[in-house]
Amino acid sequence: MSDDIRRQYGLRPIINVSGTMTSLGASIVVPEAVEAVRAVLPQFVEIGELQKHASRTIARLTGGEAGFVTASCAAAITLAVAATMTGDDRYAIERLPDTSRLPRDEVAIQSGHLVGYGAPVDQGIRLSGAKVVPVGQATSAESWQLAGAITERTAAAVYVVSHHVVQYGQMPLAEFVEVAHAKGVPVIVDAASEYDLRGFLAQGADLALYSSHKFLGGPTGGIVAGRKDLVRAAYFQNGGIGRGMKVGKEGIVGTIAALEAWEKRDHAGIRARETAALRLWRDTLGPFAGVDAHIDPDPTKNPLDRLKVHVEPHEARTTAWDLADNLAKGERPVIVRDHEVEHGYFYLDPCNVHPGEAEIVAARLTEELEAARRSNTTAATDLLDRRRRKAANNWPD
Ligand SMILES: *Cc1c(COP(=O)(O)O)cnc(C)c1O
């Protein structure tokens, strides 16, 4: 792999063991999608026809009736909600986000699903003009609370599948769908980061939304799949609020190619390679006092494991966050998954490493932990200072 393009822009050659992060460039785009994007960029295409092709591919892979590609899963949330309010009424579509003349503009969502993925889920809903109606409390939502929250003004119910959401006390999708459907309300599932392309529609969701650039390894894009009338109504939003969420021909073609590659991907081979990386890192960390590493399954049951690395500061002479910060420095910066680091652990995610990088990660772990072991004092940055430092953002300076 060449780092040339990064050097050209003065960017550091980071190694991503954090996962699929927008802020790090999402995922490794699969060669089939790279080639399709390259091939389409100089050509003119009839976008409506290309999106019909995307619809057939999305239908085949998801089991939905139809689908289309948009700019991102965040865009898909907004367009899907808009579809449930306007249907295919072009005039209503042009008036959004003004919903004052629409019969339905409320969206029910469990409080524990009102999370952020870099932007707030609720804002993705509100952008359409819809009003968010939270259901239950952060750590508990019951079917009677959803039933009670639904009124004749409810346009849709949104369900988020993600490691970001509260992982207990929430309604399972099947129960959520049952309650919403009993009241005639369609269910939209945000499954941006999920491997399961069929399961949410199979459980009765009316629309399922995915990111092209996460596990699928496509270019930046979003996928809307499901009921044909709602897919059409969401697609028509491109003549309204969807314009600012426009996907180009390269995003559509790249998403189709990534979906086709997904069908043929050697999933078992990739899993074996990821497991080998996890074992290498675990064995590398084994000899270090105060460091405890074990393989941890994905919280939303994607077929994917991560290495959970606990750091006990007195024995390891560093903290989980100082180790994470030091790994992120130097000639080969390694970016770990540190969103729970205040608990004294981080994760190493093997999904986005190129051949040869797992070994570099192991060498960097050894280097930083040996340096900590040699020092006479325990490196322990104040967590509050670290939070303040991370929150400070003077971009573009
Ligand atoms: C990443 C993510 C999104 C946003 O997806 P984009 O395609 O990057 O806009 C939405 N919801 C969840 C749960 C996510 O993880």
Automatic annotation (TrEMBL):
<dbReference type="GO" id="GO:0004125">
    <property type="term" value="F:L-seryl-tRNA(Sec) selenium transferase activity"/>
</dbReference>
<dbReference type="InterPro" id="IPR015424">
    <property type="entry name" value="PyrdxlP-dep_Trfase"/>
</dbReference>
<keyword id="KW-0663">Pyridoxal phosphate</keyword>
<dbReference type="InterPro" id="IPR015421">
    <property type="entry name" value="PyrdxlP-dep_Trfase_major"/>
</dbReference>
<keyword id="KW-0032">Aminotransferase</keyword>
<dbReference type="Pfam" id="PF03841">
    <property type="entry name" value="SelA"/>
</dbReference>
<dbReference type="InterPro" id="IPR018319">
    <property type="entry name" value="SelA-like"/>
</dbReference>
<keyword id="KW-0808">Transferase</keyword>
<dbReference type="GO" id="GO:0008483">
    <property type="term" value="F:transaminase activity"/>
</dbReference>
<comment type="similarity">
    <text>Belongs to the SelA family.</text>
</comment>
<feature type="modified residue" description="N6-(pyridoxal phosphate)lysine">
    <location>
        <position position="214"/>
    </location>
</feature>
<protein>
    <submittedName>
        <fullName>Aminotransferase class V-fold PLP-dependent enzyme</fullName>
    </submittedName>
</protein>
